[in-house]
Write a structure and sequence with these properties.
It contains 4 helices and 5 strands. The chain has helices at residues 15-27, 40-50, 68-78, 110-120, and strands spanning 7-11, 32-37, 54-57, 83-88, 101-104. Helix content is 37%, strand content 20%. Helix 2 (40-50) packs parallel to helix 3 (68-78). It has a 5-stranded parallel β-sheet with strand order 2-1-3-4-5, sandwiched between helices. It has one domain (7-120): Response regulator (Rossmann fold), CATH 3.40.50. By secondary structure, it is α/β, with parallel strands linked by helices. Helix 1 links the parallel strand 1 (7-11) and strand 2 (32-37).
Amino acid sequence: MDLVPTRIIVIDDDPDIRALLAVALPQEGCGDVAGVASTVEDAIALAEEVQPDVIVTDLVSSTSLDGAHPYLEGLRLAAPGARIVVFSGRLRTNRADGVDAYVTKSGELAPLVDAIGRLRSPS
C-alpha cells in the first residue's frame, strides 16, 4: 500500500508521551512530526501554523470531557484539512466531535501506527 506524505502534530500534556511519539512515529513510517504542544491554546495555534495532515491528540488535562467538543472543533477550524486521532486513556469522544479515529492508550504503539496508516492511505 502506498502512503501519502504526512505532516503530524502531537498534543499531549505528558512530556514523556510527546517525546516518545515525536521520535517513534517517524521511525514507524507514519510521517514527519512537525510540532508538539501540551495545552489547548498551544495546540490550536500549532495546528493553525503547521496545517498538518494528521493531528494526534490526547484530551489534554485542561479539557474536561464536556470541553472535548469545543477543543476538537477548535482544532478542526484551525486545520480544516487535518485528520484527527484522539490518543487517550479517557472515554471515547463522539464521532460527531470531528474525530477520524480513536485509539486508547494501552502501552502499545501499534494501534496508533495502524490508525495513522489507515488515514494516510490514498482514497
